[in-house]
Write a structure and sequence with these properties.
sodium ion binding; Na/solute_symporter; 0% strand; Na/Pro_symporter
């Protein structure tokens, strides 16, 4: 266990919970729209980066680099599909969803919007949506908590199960206390850290490789590793990842929360640009990680290992 990294993580956790406490104290008995949608007062930077960070999170730091590290250039089509889908959702879905959710009795959730939009007098649609969300997001949240456990156990050295309980408690705490505002602001800061980490780490690693500072020689690769056009099925399935953005509630709810149409246009530019940069450097991390680290036992920690190898504990604790 590295004490410096542990201290950095603790400070970060306290900061996250502090955001929840701040918005709890600031709320003063606000109504449902303020708690669940931030009163539709989200600015362009917070809405854009929170939407991106809530989607990418640990996956872009662990999942995508691991996939590229293990399987090669053919995995870039996942990033291409995500970039296209994300851009299209901001361009075509965001302005309409914001406009129609206000027109549909100022709906503050996706199930409520669908019910009001289609003038349903029954609660059946809301119930169906709730059941689908419960099942899907139980699995989704579990994978995110598992990623937190892997990160903490790798970096801090504590048991992965204990780490998952700690992560779940912190997330529930700031979400319960601060509502939508706390979630968006914590995701905003996380988005900034993700951007910094993915910009800095692969560039430093590549510089070390160029100067002969790699930890090991390039690991053996599978056949066609450097070929992006492996098969049409890989390309089509990779591009298909982008279709999910049009129906992911935790992302599109951000569209409904934006303050104005002017801010929405700014948000779309910021959000699309952030995502393109994040995906490019996430893919680069996987490819450069193979050259820099050589063969590692667990490909899911390629980015974590690269950061901890290059930077001192204080910097790696901040970036991770």
């Amino acid at each position: 266990m590295n004490v410096t990294e542990l201290v950095v993580f603790i400070i970060y956790f306290v900061f996250m919970v502090g955001i929840g406490i701040y918005f709890f104290a600031k709320s003063k008995g606000d109504n449902e729209k303020d708690y669940f949608l931030g009163g539709r007062q989200m600015g362009p930077w917070v809405s854009a980066l929170s939407a991106g960070a809530s989607d990418m999170s640990a996956w872009v730091l662990m999942g995508l680099p691991a996939s590229v590290y293990a399987l090669g250039m053919g995995q870039i089509w996942i990033a291409v599909g995500l970039a296209i889908g994300y851009a299209l959702s901001w361009i075509f879905e965001a302005p309409r969803l914001r406009k129609f959710s206000i027109a549909a009795k100022d709906s503050i959730t996706i199930p409520q919007y669908l019910t009001n939009r289609f003038l349903s007098k029954s609660k059946f649609l809301q119930i169906i949506c709730a059941v689908i969300f419960l099942v899907a997001y139980t699995i989704y949240a579990a994978s995110s908590i598992k990623a937190c456990g892997t990160l903490f156990s790798t970096v801090i050295g504590i048991d992965a199960t204990v780490a998952m309980y700690i992560a779940a408690f912190i997330i529930i705490a700031y979400t319960f206390l601060g509502g939508f505002n706390a979630v968006c602001w914590t995701d905003f800061f996380q988005g900034l850290l993700m951007l910094a980490a993915l910009l800095i780490a692969p560039i430093f690693a590549l510089a070390l490789v160029k100067n002969g500072g790699a930890v090991a020689g390039a690991a053996p690769v599978v056949e066609g590793y450097w070929d992006a056009f492996t098969s049409w099925s890989d390309i089509v399935s990779g591009l298909g990842w982008g279709l999910g953005y049009f129906g992911m509630p935790h992302i599109i709810i951000r569209f409904m929360s934006i303050r104005s149409n002017k801010d929405l246009r700014k948000s779309s530019v910021i959000g699309i640009s952030w995502t393109f940069i994040i995906l490019i450097f996430s893919v680069a991390s996987g490819l450069i990680g193979r050259m820099f680290l050589g063969e590692i036992e667990d490909s899911s920690v390629v980015f974590i290992t690269m950061v901890r190898t290059i930077f001192p504990a204080l910097v790696s604790g901040i970036l991770l």
